[in-house]
Amino acid sequence: MTQSANSAAQTAPKKSTGRFSWLVTLIVRLLLLGVSGGLAIIVGIVLANFYPSTNPDKPLLLRLIESFENGTPVIASNSTLTPVPDTANPALQLTAEQKQQVQTELTKLQEQQQALRDGVANLETQLGITSPNEILETRLQDLSQQIQRESAPITNVSVSNGSANETTSSSESVLSTDKLKVTLPSDALFELDNSILRPEASLILDKIIADLRDYPSSTIRIAAYTDGTKEAEDNRELSFRRAKAIEQYLANALGDEYRWLVVGYGETLPLVANDNPANQQRNRRLEIAVVE
Fold first, then answer.
1. Contact 249, 243 (CB under 8 A)
2. Of 148, 147, 164, 165, nearest to 156 (Cα)?
3. Average of pLDDT values for 68-92?
4. Domain containing 240: what range?
5. N or C end: fewer C-beta atoms under 10 angstroms in the chain?
6. Do 158 and 280 have their domain in common?
């Protein structure tokens, strides 16, 4: 009996000690789990800052909360959606008569566009502009700018009727449909910076005289242009003297039944930029036109 009591007294503390050690182990494990979880969160935050996702999505928990508040279902990012036909805006269905009307309107618009292109090309020909590769809007803007330049004040204008000559100052340009227009390089008719006709210029002008005889009692416009290498006033004077020289030659051959309009534009209306010798030669030109 004494031994039993002693054995019972010895085994009772052992059971209590085992239960305490199990509780300590559980607490330690929970602490380790918390510490490891915290470290994992910190590492994840650091990695997210240094390597952000190219296509970030909201966390599933946040999307669940927003969907619960808005009443919309949550769709996974890797799920595929089946397109739903839009019944609110169905495709327009035209009857055969409506299609015919639309086609007729389209044909009219195309014809108007072609007529506009033809009109622009005609104006460009009259004003000496060549830009067929430009879009229509740009060509219209170029024409507008050219007409504005044509409307600039002209210093030297000479209007002649028969043998009576009168020199006037005009701020209006001559814009009319030319019946005949010939553009000649000034270098073929005059020496550089000179207003005296070359001897061989008569061969060119005599051919033009033959054409002008087909327009008796008409007004003939003679316009001369220079490059921009000299002073503007000197260029206007030179161009006017050259135009007057052409008028005198033609008037002597055609007689007094023609009316003459002589204009010296100088450097004001260049065809191209005066930035190289070839372009300067193009700008030195002379126009002879039957205007009415």
1. no
2. 165
3. 57
4. 153-290
5. N
6. yes
